[in-house]
Each structure stands twice: as structure tokens, then as C-alpha cells.
Amino acid sequence: MTDSGWPRRAVDLVATGAGWSRNRRRRIVLSELALTITFTLTVGLGLVQRDALDSTALFLAGWALNLVVLVLCCVLPWSRISGRWVILMPLLDFVAIGLARAAAGDALSGVGLLAAFPVVWIAASRVRTAAAVAITVLASLAIIWFPLVAQPGPVTLDTLIDPILLPIMLTGLAWFVSELTKDNRRRQAALQASQAALRESVEAGRARERLLRTVLDTVSVGVLAVSARGDDVLMNARQREGHATAAPPGNDDPTEAELLIFGEDRVTPLPPDRRPVLRAIGGEDLDGEQVWVGTGRSQRALSISSRSMHDDDGAFAGTVVSFNDVTELLRALHAKDDFLSNVSHEFRTPLTSILGYLELTAERSDDLPDDVAGFITVARRNALRLERLVEDLLAINAGTFQVHPVPTDVGGILAEATSSSLVRAARAGVRLVNRAPSRLPAVADPVRLAQAVDNLVSNAVKYNRRGGSITLDATLGEDGLTVQVEDTGIGIEAEELHQVFDRFFRSSSVRSSSVPGVGLGLLITKSIVSEHGGSITVTSEPGVGTCFSMLIPQPAP
To answer: In the 3-class helix/strand/coil scheme, how is 166-210 assigned residue by residue?
Structure first.
């Protein structure tokens, strides 16, 4: 609100209206002033030759009328007068010029040319071309014929035609100026429309830019757009924070080579040619490149990805780089590893005690009933499996997982795995089938291979349905030893297949069930196969079943 209490919009409208009124008055006065100046010079010339004038008084009367028109142009309230009445001013000018020409006689025959000024005024106004031409014809004829009619004596056709050149010239001038003005106005309207469209486009661009910046500043991922020359084009708020973290102390605007960027060990600086942003500027597309930035307690882990931009010709035009802060995720994974390592160490002591007492009991098997001796044997075998699992977890964490391949009977390993799982499969209502040959010699670590097969069979029992089946098979071919475990269980979703060998991974369907597990069996199985130099693959269809295939290369004969 202004001091007077008017709304700001009303004040703006009043100010705009006042400005338009002043501009209109200025145009009208300037249009008349040009004629008045020329008219005054003509009057001065006529007074020098006053003896040759037919009537000095009439000559001065025409000039006086022109001065009156100029005064009217200056004092009339044009803001309250309709625009169509403005044409009266040039019409009065025609009268003034007509009086001066009638009084000038032959001494100043060119006085009639002053009519060009009101002709141009009328033609340049918003009247139609036909109206401007008609007014010009009538007014110019009146100027040249009025003196002839006013003089004594007969008026002949020749006397009327002799001065007709002036109306013809003025009529042509009126037509030309009117058409030129209309064309000018069309161009001006087109220009104004273009300017309005440009303003709208600029405003829309600014609105999109504001929206883009708001969206980019809202996301929790740092975003950086870089041109082909390496200049920063766009950087959101999150990336500015990350950039400040990576800046050396005392350097507020470091170059990419000066930033504190380290490898996965958090202490070794990355050389400039290995830094993710410089590689992205070089045209390389990155996916999950992990680095550490900054030092001390403020050091952060970033997962960096990038995608290149190309122009219409396919040339490199820049790149967009995203920076995802994964510090908390890495800390959580590290905490998981620490927890797993600590729990595994804690398991060792009670397991050692359990195995010791089981071995002591087994040594006195002669004093035990046959079924109890069998129970002791099964308990000891599973305790040994649990001990190996603990050792494997510790080895995986420490990166010291090892296998010792030797000639072994794979057929016997699968037969033993089938026998050990029969009781669990029967309780689950699952049929267990072993299609492997009874004897299949191959080179592998028998303990580790049995562990891998047990893991796969155990999963197949747990995640099967009552009435389902599990099929074990093994073959020896040119590629090596292939061991398959196929089930008719619940299956795995296609988008989760690439995660089944990740540490602690359990599929969504399993998490929603009551089946126990920690998500380490398949990781250990993959580690066993990898240490043999082989590979493990999985195919699955939800509701149909899953098939795991282990391929272990064999030495040349």
C-alpha cells in the first residue's frame, strides 16, 4: 500500500495513464509546431514582399489562425478528448493555409505547399487510406479553387485545371504516407508481439531455471554439470557442500587437481588422471566409482556416477556427474563385519568344548547303544560343519579363504549330501533325488565342495514347498566339472537375481516368511567355487523353482 492507501496496482495504472497522456500531447504539439515554424518563415518572407501580396491582412489572418491551432494543441486536455477529434487540428490548418494562399497571389504561389504538413498528419493518423486521400483531395482543391471563386470575373475550365498539379502531388503524398504508416504499424505490431513472446519465453525460462534449481537443491545427491572445456555449468547445494569438504584448508576455490580425494584406503591421494570428474570430462561414463574426500573426522565416502552429453552432431558436449554420500552405509557395513567377526570368535570356545566332549563320548561308543552312537556321530559331523562355517566367516572377513583341490570322488560327495539331508527333506515333505553317477572322479577340495553342495541343498529344502522336489546332478565335460542343484521352490524375482551372492542378502519373499537365515550360505558357496577358479550361475522363476550350477575347471590330463 502507498501512503494514500491506494493499491500499488492502481498507482501503477495512474502513472501509466499519465505517461501516455503526456506522450500524446507531445506528439500533437510537435506535429503542429513543424507547420507553425515553416508558416512563420513564409509569413516573414511575405511581409518583405508585402507590396506584391493581394491582401496583407488576410495573409496575416491565416498565420494567426495557425498560431491559434498551435495554442489549442498545447492547452486542450487531450487525455479527456476522443482521438477522432484530433483530426480537427490539421483541418483548421488547411483553412489557415487556404487564407494565406488566397492572400499571397502570384508573389508567393508556393504557399500552397504548406498543405503537405496537415496532409502528412492526417495520412499518418489512424484514418483509413481512402479517407486520408479523400480529405486531401477536397482540402487541396478548396485551397486552389477558393481564390479563383472569390475573384471577380468568370471562372473557366482552364483556370480550374491550371493549378491542379498541387492536389495531385498532395494526394499522392497522402496515399504514400498512409500506406507507409500502415506498413510501419504492422511491423511495429509484429515487433511488439515478438518482444512479448520473447519476454514470455525469458520468464518461462527463468521459471524453469528456478524449478530446476529448487529440485536439484532438494535432492540428497550432489549434482555437477560440466562443459566440454571443463567449466562448471551447474552445481547444486549438496555438491557445493561436498566441494567445500574436499577443499584444502585455506583454499576457497581449488582446482580439481587440488581437491583432497583419496582411494579406498582413505589415505592415498588419487592422481589427477584417475580422479572421477576429470575422467568424466574426458568422456568416460562412471558407475559407482568410490572415493573418499576431505580429511580427519569430516572425511566422507562418495559413490560417483556420470553420463556424457552430446550435441546434435554426436560430439562430446559435457557431462553430468552425481555424488552420492555413502559414508553411513560403509560404516554400517564395517559394523556388520566387526559384529560378524566378534560373534565368530565367540563361537569358537563353546564349539571347541562341544567337539571335545563329543569326541570323548565317541571313544566310548562300545559302551553305548547303537542308535545313541549314531546320534553322536551325526552331532559330531554337524558340529564340525559349524566349526568350518565359523572358520569360513573369519576367513572371508580376513580375505584368507583357501581351498586345496585333490583328486576326489564327486559322486560320493553328492551321495553323502543326499543321505545327510534326507531326514530334513522328509520332514519338509520334499522329495530328494540324486541323478549323479555313483562314482565321478574329479579334482576339487572334497571338504569345501561338500560344504558348497550342503549349502545349496539346505537352501533348496528351506525354500521349497511341501510336495516339491530337489534334484542333484553332476557331469564331467570339456569345460570342467558341473554340479547342479535344482528345486521346485518359491523362486527368486528377476530383479533380485544379481544380489543373491551378496553378503547378508535375503530376497523379499524370504524376509516375509518365517524361514530362518542370515544370508551368508550363498556367499560362502560362491567363495568356494571362485577359489577353485570356477563360476556359479543361477536361473529362477518365481513360483516354479531355482537351479544353481557350479562349474569347476579341471586340470589338463
So the answer is: HHHHHHHHHHHHHHHHHHHHHHHHHHHHHHHHHHHHHHHHHHHHH
How far is 337 from 504, CA to CA, in rounded Å? 11
- Element containing residue 475 per DSSP (H, E): strand 469-477
Rounded to the nearest angstrom, the gap between the alpha carbon of residue 250 and the centroid of all alpha carbons in its chain is 33
> Phi and psi (nearest 5°) for 405?
-65, 135
What pLDDT shows up at residue 550?
A: 94
pLDDT of residue 113: 82
Sign of CA dihedral 29, 34, 35, 36: positive
Q: Is the pLDDT of residue 46 over 90?
A: no
Helix (H) or strand (E) holding 431: strand 431-434
Residue appearing with cell numbers 568356494: 528
Strands 431-434 and 469-477, by their bridges, are parallel
Given a contact cutoff of 8 angstroms between Cβ atoms, the answer to whether 551 and 482 are in contact is yes
Tracing cell 568410490 back to the chain, one arrives at: 290
Distance CA 87, CA 119 (A): 11
Q: What is the mean pLDDT of residues 31-37?
A: 88
Which amino acid, 197?
A
Non-local (6+) Cβ contacts of 432 within 8 A are: 418, 421, 422, 425, 457, 469, 470, 472
- Cα(477)–Cα(46) distance, integer angstroms: 126
pLDDT, tens digit (0-9, with 9 covering 90-100), for 508-529: 555 555 555 556 778 888 888 9
Tell me the torsion sign for CA atoms 393, 396, 400, 401: positive
At 67 the three-state DSSP class reads helix
Q: Residues 6 or more apart from 383 whose CB is under 8 A from it?
A: 351, 354, 355, 358
505 versus 174: the higher-pLDDT residue is 174
Task: Examine the pLDDT at 240 and tell me if it is beyond 90.
Answer: no
Listed residue (94, 91, 72, 88) closest to 25, CA to CA: 72
The two counts, helices (H) then strands (E), for the chain are 15, 13
Mean pLDDT of the chain: 81
Q: pLDDT band at 10, cuts 50/70/90?
A: very low
Lowest mean pLDDT among 109-113, 270-274, 396-400, 476-480: 396-400
Nearest-angstrom CA–CA distance, 456 and 536:
11
SS3 category, 487: strand
Strand partners, 483: 474, 550
